[in-house]
Amino acid sequence: MIPLFFFLFGICIGSFLNVCITRIPEGISVISPGSRCPRCEMPIKPYDNIPVFGWLFLRGKCRNCGLPISPMYPIIEFLTGAIFVLTYYEFGVTFLTLKWLILSCLIITLTVTDLRVRLLPDAVTFPGATLGLLLSFLITIYDPTAGTLYYCAFHRLPPYPGVVFNVLNSVLGLLLGSLLLWGAAAAYKLVRKREGMGFGDVKMMAMVGAFLGPRGAFLTILVGTLLGSIVGLSWIALLYLYGWKRKLAERAARRGLGSVSNLRWAIVSQYQLPLGTFLGVGAMGVVYLVPSLLDLFLR
Fold first, then answer.
1. Is the predicted pLDDT of residue 216 greater than 80, yes or no?
2. Which of 63, 130, 241, 248 shows the smallest number of beta carbons within 10 Å?
3. Cis status, amide bond into 158, omega within 30 of 0
4. CA 224 – CA 228 distance, rounded (Å)
5. What is the chain's percent helix, strand, coil content, to nearest 5?
């Protein structure tokens, strides 16, 4: 019954995350008005607003206007429920589970929002970073960084890590995560003479670092940027092979701006993928996969 409860509670939270994903970028309150069709704006009946199942019962269409409702809604709800169940199986009924569920909800909201509208709202990242710092007073961050700094400063082993070390790890994670990305963005702009990364990614990593600590923040950036590079290069190659913006390149070539192939490659290479989405995937991997992989390696 406990996994079932986690799943049902998770899909209900996922329904609220859908509201955040669609309304926060528009500057609309997540409390009122109530749920409604995004096209005809007819309020959705309570029996049609059941997470996942309501969309299936309606066959993905609005009961009033009959126009399709995005499958994003049930997908987010089901994904959130699945993550809640996974967290229960990984960490049990503990305060650590509560911490990772909060982080997961924040990551889902930011990841999907960045994928949809290329935006990482301050209304999510700032409260998220604050929550990460506050939780460090209650829940241990298993990171040796603060203890190592203590040893380097005082040349003796640190005492049993308590609240001070937890908070220090959270602050260090916030600073490391944000400064690493900020430095990378500044270096890119210096070399390429154009913006390559939004400041929202920096604030997102500050939030992630506050939850995970410096080691987790570094691993998140490592995994996220590596995954983003692989997917980004593959996607650009596919766009080029598919002939994306070919007509635009041909019109430019007729005006003597260059060959079609060079122009097509120049256009395709400017395509921007949302880094925040890959950082979110990296953070989830650090929380749920890295401990299992380390345990397997140690065994």
1. yes
2. 241
3. no
4. 6
5. 70, 0, 25
Domain boundaries, the chain: 140-299
- Count other Cβ atoms within 10 Å, centred on residue 83: 24
Q: How far apart are CA 111 and CA 279, in angstroms?
A: 8
CA distances from 83 to 20, 86, 97, 130, 195 (A): 18, 5, 11, 23, 34
User: Hey, how many other C-beta atoms are within 10 angstroms of the C-beta on 175?
Assistant: 15
Point out which residues pair with 36 in neighbouring strands: 43
Q: Which two structure tokens, joined as six digits, stand for 79?
A: 């994904």
Distance separating alpha carbons of residues 22 and 26, to the nearest angstrom? 7
Residue 61, strand partner residues: 68
Contacts of 99 (CB under 8 A, 6+ apart): 135, 139, 211
Instruction: Work out the pLDDT band at 161, boundaries 50, 70, 90.
Output: low
DSSP letter at 46?
G
Cβ atoms 147, 166 nearer than 8 A: no
CA distance 73 to 65: 18
Of 211, 21, 245, the residue nearest 135 (C-alpha): 211
Spatial contact of 176 and 213, defined as CB atoms under 8 Å apart? no
Q: Is 70 exceeded by the pLDDT of residue 160?
A: no
